[in-house]
Design a protein that fits this description.
Elements lengths: L8 H28 L5 H20 L8 H24 L27
Length: about 120
């Protein structure tokens, strides 16, 4: 093991400040986006901004940038999440009482057409 490795902490500090500024800009974008652009895609846009911020935090502040197994770990986690979402979706679609459930049933609106009053 080589103990004579020289680490330039000033370069690392500059990198951390760049990531901090990027996170602050993305946070500002999170607040500005619903009012400025992609208004009809706000949910998806917010998820993408959040995923980018999480990736930056994981890679730089949690020091996972140089890890070898991070790709396999993320892929395994995503497969697991997608699998469980598919199980839940299949379960909800085959729910026995979905017509009477307040969660899965369609809203029922009673309209009284005979009680319409016309003021003239």
């Amino acid at each position: 093991m080589d103990t004579n490795t020289h680490i330039n902490y000033e370069e690392q500090k500059v990198g951390y400040y760049k990531v901090l500024v990027g996170l602050l800009l993305l946070t500002t974008l999170t607040f500005v986006q619903p009012h400025m652009f992609f208004e009809s895609y706000t949910f998806v846009t917010q998820l993408m901004i959040g995923a980018l911020k999480a990736w930056m935090i994981l890679m730089y502040y949690m020091h996972l940038k140089g890890e070898k197994l991070i790709g396999w770990t993320v892929a395994f986690s995503l497969v697991l999440v997608v699998f469980f979402f598919l199980v839940v979706i299949a379960d909800v679609n085959s729910f026995q009482f979905k017509d009477v459930s307040h969660i899965t049933s369609q809203p029922h609106i009673d309209v009284d057409y005979h009680h319409a009053s016309h003021e003239e």
